[in-house]
Design brief:
The complex is a heterodimer of chains A (91) and B (161). Chain A has 91 residues and is mainly α. Chain A has one domain. Chain A has six helices and no strands. The relative contact order of chain A is 0.09. Chain B is an all-alpha fold. Chain B is 57% helix and 0% strand. Chain B is built from six helices and no strands. The longest helix of chain B is centred in the last third of the chain and has 22 residues. The radius of gyration of chain B is 18 Å and the shape is elongated. Chain B starts with a helix and ends with a helix. Classes of the chains: A mainly alpha (91), B mainly alpha (161).
Chain lengths: 91, 161
Amino acid sequence: MRLSLRLRRRRENPLACREFVELVTDYLDDALPPEQRARFEAHMAGCDGCTGYLEDIRMVAATLPETDLPAADPATHATLLKAFRELRDEP
Amino acid sequence: MRSEAVAEEVVQDTWLAVVRGLGTFEGRSSLRTWIFSILVNRARTRAVREARSVPFSTLAAESEGPTVDPARFGADDMWAAPPRRLATDPEQRLLAQELRGELLAAVGALPDSQRAVIALRDLAGLPSEEVCELLDLTPGNQRVLLHRARARVRTALEVTA
């Protein structure tokens, strides 16, 4: 019984948490080969710690996008406006 | 660019080059990629002129070792104790702006090549192929740097949570 379990585990070659955490961005970028992806998802299904870790990384990536860009400082704004005007006024 | 004043100058130079060079834009890449390529070139030129190390020379040193403290795992390589979650509950995130501020501060503290990749991928939202082209990285190296950056930012927030 014990032996067969061990054999089955070896055949399925399950991922350890330590490996899982290094594959998260490859997974999110859909860059894992199919077999590796299956191992990743199988591990995730049985591991709350790793599921949480994946969600954290996803959250970091999702919270960063630049939505409210700060305006250019006045000097930069003036220089650029001048450049646009010169371009427009060129023959 | 570590100095905000220098970064402002590089951005301004870039826009001037975009305005003046628009007529030569051939449409072989997206306009966005073309603008970013001018920006990256100017930032690199500036970094060299300021005698700072060129960011990507440190690539190897920034790509080694585990991204999670090995002490977090047991002898079986599984979590010794589950990682503490970042505050994802909406009620805990009433101060979303504050969270974002902490994330950005953590990004600012990253090594150059990791910071460049996470800024282009997660802040600017460029697709990985464009980031590889802009920074002259292989897809694999690009993902390694992005993952290291995200993991470090996550760890920084876990500590302050």
